[in-house]
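[Meeting: bench + compute handoff]

Bench side (C.D.) handed over the final construct sequence. Compute side (W.E.) agreed to return the predicted structure before the next meeting so the bench team could plan truncations. Sequence as handed over:
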Amino acid sequence: MNKLDPKACGLAFGILWGGGVLIMGLVALVSAWARPFVDVLSVMYVGYRASIVGVLIGALWGFIDAFIGGWVFAWLYNKLLK
């Protein structure tokens, strides 16, 4: 079995989740459809709101959050693989 690279896994998770948070924030800027998503995440991601600056802050928080989660996932996977 192959091991996972924690850095690569963290980057993949971070880019996907950070991008999703960014897109949903931009959608919330132009419509009310994504507002509940932004409202829920703004509880955890300080500064995330439906504004240009808020969307960028949320995307950064999302990237950091998912990078750590992806790194831990790959680390744990490699430990359990042994």
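W.E. noted at the follow-up: The helical segments are 6-30, 35-44, 52-81. C.D. will use this when planning the next construct.
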